[in-house]
Design brief:
The protein is mainly β and 240 residues long. The protein is 0% helix and 36% strand. Strand 12 and strand 13 form a beta hairpin.
C-alpha cells in the first residue's frame, strides 16, 4: 500500500514501490496493544469515521487543583495564598485532557486582585516550577506593567499595558486549542497571541505561585466554543 490511512484521511504517501510478497509484522517496545487488525480489500476505500468526543459536562467545568503546595488554599475554580512565596509553589490538577477528541480545549481564569503574581497554564508534566509549563500566562500584579507568556521555560510573548493586572475583577484570560490544533491566548475574548508550538497530550491545568496568589473562576473551555467577548466596565472618571 502506498497510502497510509488515519480515520480514512491520507496523511502520507510513500515514494517507494511496493515489494511482493509482503506480510503483516509488528515490533513491540512498551506495553504493546493493537486492536481491529484487519486486511483491506483492494479497490475498497474505508469510510471516513467521526471521532468519538467525550461529552461536555457543564457541572464539571471548574478546575480542581488536587495536588498543591501547603502554602496555598484551593477550592473548585479558585486558588489563594498569602505573602511572597517565591517560585516553586505549585498546584496541579489531576484531571488530564487526553487527546483532541476530549470535550475540553483549554482554560479560562481571572487574576482577581491587583497584587497577585503567578503563572497559570497547561502542562504535560507535573509542574514544580514555572519552567515546567508547556503554555503559561503570568499575572504580575505590582511587579510589572505587562503580562508574559512562557512556553517550556522561554518567554514567547509580552503584552503591555497591564499595570496592577489591568482590571483584575473583570478581565477574563483564556488559553485554548483552536480548530487548527494551535494554542491561542486571549483577554476578554480577544486573541492577542497564537503559539507556534504543537500541542502535547495529555495536558492538565497547573499553577506556580509567587506573591499573594489569587485566582477566581478557573474553568475548562468546551471544544468548539470560543471564550466570549467581555466588555470591561468604563473607567472611573473624577467629576469636574
Amino acid at each position: 500500500f502506498r497510502r497510509v490511512l488515519f480515520r480514512s484521511a491520507v496523511y502520507y504517501t510513500s515514494s517507494r514501490a511496493v515489494t511482493y510478497p509482503w506480510h503483516v509484522a509488528v515490533d513491540a517496545y512498551t506495553a504493546p496493544s493493537i486492536v481491529d487488525l484487519q486486511y483491506l480489500e483492494c479497490g475498497v476505500e474505508l469510510p471516513v469515521t467521526t471521532p468519538v468526543m467525550t461529552p461536555w459536562d457543564p457541572d464539571d467545568a471548574l478546575v480542581v487543583f488536587d495536588n498543591f503546595n501547603p502554602e496555598l488554599t484551593v477550592s473548585p475554580g479558585a486558588l489563594t495564598g498569602d505573602g511572597q512565596l517565591g517560585w516553586n509553589t505549585p498546584a496541579n490538577s489531576d484531571r488530564e485532557v487526553l487527546s483532541p477528541d476530549d470535550a475540553v480545549c483549554g482554560l479560562s481564569f481571572k487574576c482577581n486582585t491587583d497584587t497577585t503574581h503567578l503563572m497559570i497554564g497547561m502542562a504535560s508534566q507535573q509542574v514544580g516550577t514555572w519552567g515546567d509549563f508547556d503554555y503559561g500566562v503570568t499575572c504580575r500584579g505590582a511587579w510589572a506593567s505587562y503580562t508574559d507568556i512562557f512556553e517550556n521555560g522561554r518567554n514567547a510573548y509580552r503584552e503591555g499595558g497591564r499595570a496592577s493586572n489591568g482590571n483584575p475583577e473583570a478581565d477574563v484570560h483564556a488559553i485554548f486549542v483552536n480548530e487548527d490544533n494551535q494554542v491561542e491566548y486571549s483577554l476578554n475574548g480577544i486573541v492577542y497571541h497564537t503559539s507556534s508550538r504543537e500541542v502535547t497530550y495529555p495536558w492538565h491545568v497547573a499553577v506556580d505561585a509567587y506573591t499573594a496568589p489569587s485566582l477566581a473562576e478557573v474553568e475548562y473551555i468546551q471544544c468548539g466554543v470560543a471564550p466570549p467577548l467581555v466588555t470591561p466596565p468604563p473607567p472611573v472618571v473624577t467629576p469636574w
